[in-house]
Write a structure and sequence with these properties.
Length: 157
């Protein structure tokens, strides 16, 4: 059967080492970069800098390292490993949906415990990314299912 969508190829196994290296070295390296930028006078308003750049500087090394770990092949990549990888990704997407949808509840429960007022946290970007992920996943699945059924019907004739 002819594949209509490009197959996602996993990275070679050696990229697992790079992922671990990025996880271990990434955040301290970003801290050194921040100190260098402040020391050289490139960053003058540190309050604004840390407000705007703090999350990317912390999250990017973690996300890149974990992506390298997740998308690297195992030493022996067989059907069982692919099935376990698929299950892990499906469970991950499921719990991501639950977590993002429950975030306002947990956020406000924590605020109420501190004696603050209830407000809606800014989760617009997360909701948009989640929506795009779900649209692509469902569309890709339906398209591949349609192509497979069409090919099976053609083979049956």
């Amino acid at each position: 059967m002819k594949e209509m969508l490009p197959q996602v190829k996993l990275l070679p196994h050696r990229y697992k080492r790079y992922g671990i290296l990025v996880l271990i070295v990434g955040i301290p390296l970003m801290m050194l970069l921040t100190l260098a930028l402040i020391g050289l006078g490139i960053v003058t308003d540190t309050k604004t800098f840390f407000t705007e750049w703090n999350n990317p500087m912390v999250y990017y090394p973690i996300i890149i390292g974990l992506a390298l770990l997740n998308f690297s092949q195992e030493k022996e990549e067989d059907e069982m490993v692919r099935h376990l990888r698929y299950q892990a990704f499906m469970n991950g997407v499921f719990y991501l949906i639950i977590g993002i949808l429950m975030l306002p509840l947990f956020y406000n429960a924590f605020r109420l415990l501190r004696g603050a007022t209830i407000e809606m946290p800014d989760i617009g970007g997360m909701l948009g990314a989640l929506m795009l992920l779900l649209i692509y996943t469902y569309g890709s699945f339906r398209y591949k299912l349609h192509q497979t059924r069409k090919a099976l019907e053609a083979d049956a004739e």
